[in-house]
Amino acid sequence: MGLHHSSTPDILAIAPPGDYKDFFPLRTPEWEDIRVPVNAIKLSGTKPPGWTSWKGGEVLAFQDQGVEANEQRVTFLVQLPHGYQEGTDIVAHVHWVGEDVTAGDVVWQLTCSWANTNQAFPGESTYYAVASNNSALADAHTHSDFSPALDGNSKTVSSMLVCTLRRNSNNIADTFAGKDAYLTEVDFHFKMDTIGSQNEATK
Q1: Residue 5 lies in a domain
Q2: 28: part of which helix (H) or strand (E)?
Q3: CA-CA distance, 154 to 173, in Å (whole number)?
Q4: Contact 114, 161 (CB under 8 A)
Q5: Residues ≥6 apart with Cβ < 8 Å to 31
């Protein structure tokens, strides 16, 4: 026997053994994060950003590059957890800080290939985040969403993404001229509808 949420808020009821997948749904899907901190990111072998000492730690400094081939980039992998509400979209975003309070926009470009287990990885899809540097507050923590959301149609738990992130400073919309953008983390917001899955490999 086990406990589960009844239809009455804040009341727990007894669940039969083996029924935890059915008896432990969330009353409404909730948002959660898949976090990719900079220390979990692989630097590109050809055009990596540089580690920069900042606030007693280190961040990745993406420079302003006028030539597309010189734009700095990083790569990383992501797996969808077992709480993921299968078939729903996910929203990628970056956490970053401008070098100083110079006014201007930074263009981040993300490419992802997303595949379920036992399926082929498709060609990459491209997403952009155009974000204004905070010119009123030094060292401001900025959260910038990529658009559009990543299409989760038919996607399942344990699906994986192969990703590349770069500062698309060659883009005319990137106007943070001559300044660095400090990356602190990449995240993916996803909806979860259970605390996990009853089966090891499937939901």
Answers
A1: no
A2: strand 25-37
A3: 34
A4: yes
A5: 189, 190, 191, 192
**pLDDT value for 24:** 60
| Residue 145 belongs to domain spanning | 27-194
CATH code (residue 174): 2.60.120.260
Residue 27 is predicted with a pLDDT of: 75
CB 90 within 8 A of CB 81: no
Q: pLDDT-based confidence at 12, cuts 50/70/90? A: very low
d(Cα 203, Cα 194) in Å, to the nearest integer? 9
Cβ–Cβ < 8 Å for 191, 31: yes
3 within a domain of the structure (yes/no) = no
**pTM of the full predicted structure?**
0.85
Measuring CA to CA, which residue among 148, 153, 149 is closest to residue 87? Answer: 153
Number of domains in the chain: 1
